[in-house]
Amino acid sequence: MIETRLISECPSVKKITGTLPDARLGFCSDTRALKEPAMFMAYPGARHNPLSYAEPLLKDGCRVVIFEDSAENQALVSGLLAKFPQTCFVCVSDAVAFTQELGTRHVKGWQKSGGRVFAISGSNGKTTHKEMLSFLLKTVMPNEMVATEKNNNNHLGVPLTVLQIRPETKICVLELGSNHPGEIKVLCDLANPDCGLVTNIGATHLEFFGSEEKVFEEEGYLYHAVGDGLFFQNLDDSFLKTFPRAKGTVTFSAKGEADIRFKTEAGEVQIDGKLGHEILRNKALTGTHNLTNMATAWCIAVSIFPEKRGVLTAAASLFRPTANRSEWKDFSDKKIYLDAYNANPSSMKVALSGFFEWLKDHGIAESDSLVVLGDMNELGENAPAYHREVGEYLRQWPDAHNIFIGRFASHYLEGRGLGTCYPDAARFKGLEWDHMTHSKTHLFIKGSRSLQLESLLAIT
Fold first, then answer.
1. Of 333, 400, 331, 402, the residue nearest 369 (C-alpha)
2. What's the start-to-end Cα distance of the chain, in Å?
3. At what angle do helices 183-191 and 212-219 cross, to 10 degrees?
4. Chain-wide mean pLDDT for the chain?
């Protein structure tokens, strides 16, 4: 709930018509979702103007409507004012800028009363860590936490998330996304994180960053924004381990000495060090990387809410991957490992390792598997080389059958030496899917979102 007085403090406000109520109101931008006393934000749409559908909201008592200045909107508001003179209309110069200004003021005021913002950036695993941490916290405090929904991690998604913070909220978990230089700083300035984690640094969005060093500069900005606050530092990452230790830093590693040490085995991860000894078990997680992700999320949650340790440990066993992200699906008589949301060289390698590690642990022969790889997008001029590199990485599992899909399929093939290429998922599905999968019991499917590889399973 947001104090309405904050509206008049936002620089993008041009004019307030009517009386701004002295109240706390929710923030809503969907005419179908307004179920409580709330201000309505009419974001300009490409095809529909939400002000054209606002009349039922005003009949139901919506007290504040915010709109972006335009001739069309001014005409619509003039008509609504004649029918609903009790409603306050706020004209702003830019709807997104206003949302950012209001969100920043709201979150900073909430932090003064003890609220904490935990932000997550990094090349790979941001959403996974956010989902895991959110799941753990929601289990122990369902009405006292707010988190980024789906991957709404950009200049609009972040302020929209913090605007969902209510007086009873104790922690807000934010995912911060970037594909251009400077975006993480903008998001940190908006959300004011006082705790954080940079997951890792890899070859992501190189079309815009140019090098992993520039990716580190971008994603690592969160460390500087948090300052002396609680910051989890991954010592297994060659870039992140170079951060100087700050007052609130907690280091972790699966390879060497750190404040917190992880050791993984099939279906479980052992935690030792600063937080004592604990073993987390979760058979639904595939690969060492996902087990250490869960361990990291657990350590964060326990560090912030140590009194919830026992419940958090129990909750760690119940987490299940979200749709299209590192999830096992039963399809016909086969098991499918599906990660069709995004892909880059580092995430592709750890996912492949996790898949074949799982097969080995379950006594499944490589020859019973089919690997389907789609393009890795936004890698810039070196994209062919990165695809060849992943193809070469596949050589360590020589008995697996390989299918490559997309613009860079031939480069995968150059690296692997064996496999079949298709221009898109539809062509593979229409021509060879049934034949290729007939004798295979376990399938690995991963590629960037634009490939829509989930369509191979007729999943929407």
1. 400
2. 34
3. 10
4. 92
| Model pLDDT for residues 328-364, shown as the tens digit of each residue | 888 888 899 988 777 889 889 989 998 998 899 889 9
In this predicted structure, the answer to whether residue 263 has a pLDDT above a threshold of 50 is yes
Domains of the chain: 2-93 (3.40.1390.10), 99-316 (3.40.1190.10), 327-457 (3.90.190.20)
Strand partners, 369: 442
Classify burial at 119, counting beta carbons within 10 Å of its beta carbon; exposed 0-12, middle 13-18, buried 19 or more.
buried
> 297 Cβ partners below 8 Å, 6+ apart?
129, 132, 133, 136, 316
Q: How far apart are CA 133 and CA 144, in angstroms?
A: 14
Write b or e for each residue in 309-342: b if 16 or more Cβ atoms lie within 10 A of its Cβ, otherwise e.
beebbebbeebebeebebbbbeeeebbbbbbbbb
Sign of the alpha-carbon torsion through 65, 71, 75, 76 = negative
Residues in the chain: 460
pLDDT tens for each residue of 411-458 = 999 999 999 999 999 999 888 888 888 889 999 999 988 888 888 887
**Entry pTM:** 0.85
Reading phi first (left if > 0) and then psi (alpha if -120 to 50, else beta), residue 414 is in alpha
Residue with tokens 């379950």: 362
SS3 category, 84: coil
DSSP 324: T
Nearest partner of 170 among 6, 305, 300, judged by Cα: 305
For residue 298, the tally of other CB atoms under 10 A from its CB is 24
Q: Reply yes or no on whether the pLDDT at 378 is more than 90.
A: no
